[in-house]
Amino acid sequence: MRALLIAPDGTVTELDLPESAVSSAIRDHIGSDGAVDQGRYHPHALLHVHGDGQRIGLDANLTAWALASAWRGMPLYPFQGPVVVTGRTQDGDTSGLDDTLAAHVHAVAQTVRETRETWQTRPPASNEAAVNELLAYAVRDVAAHR
């Protein structure tokens, strides 16, 4: 089953999850011994996140935040640690990620990397400006890959 792993540093890795043990494989990829939270930010996708990521101090995942926020059309709460992106059936079950949604992930990841590099020499005026800038870019990327 096709999925993508978004690391906190913005790296995106293609995964082939075993359908017979998909939950266990997702838990392994995000490094959780316990809870894995699922977020539905797009009708045909699920984001699987470490259930205790914030509490245990995992690094922020700006790429996953930008992607989920673009899919929702508004800034969301932060994401912590690695995030696995899968497809979603109409019944809400995990399924393989389709090419269009995978293109969203890759495009947003590239934009986040480029924007962070730009911020090294031209920092945003404020945190709010940074959030608005990055979200605008992510929304543009998602719209371009429909």
What's the arrangement of secondary structure elements?
Elements lengths: L1 E5 L5 E5 L5 H9 L5 E7 L2 E6 L11 H11 L10 E6 L5 E2 L3 H23 L5 H18 L2
Antiparallel strand pairs: 1-2, 1-5, 3-4, 4-5, 5-6
Written description of the protein model:
The chain is α+β, with helices and mostly antiparallel strands and 146 residues long. 42% of the residues lie in helices and 21% in strands. It is built from 4 helices and 6 strands. Strands 1, 2, 3, 4, 5 and 6 form a 6-stranded antiparallel β-sheet that branches. Helix 2 packs across helix 3, helix 2 packs across helix 4 (127-144) and helix 3 packs antiparallel against helix 4. The longest helix has 23 residues, at 99-121.
Quick overview of this protein structure:
The chain is α+β, with helices and mostly antiparallel strands and 146 residues long. The chain has four helices and six strands.
Write the H/E string, N to C: EEHEEHEEHH
**Which shape, going by the Cα principal axes?**
globular
Indicate the low-confidence ranges by residue numbers.
Answer: none
Question: Strand pairing plus helix content: what structural class?
Answer: alpha+beta
The main sheet comes to: 6 strands, antiparallel
The N- to C-terminal Cα distance equals 22 Å
Strand content of the residues, in percent? 15-25%
Counted by DSSP, the helix tally is 4
Number of strands: 6
Instruction: Indicate the percent of residues in helices.
Output: 40-55%
What is the averaged pLDDT score? 94
User: What radius of gyration results from the CA coordinates?
Assistant: 15 Å
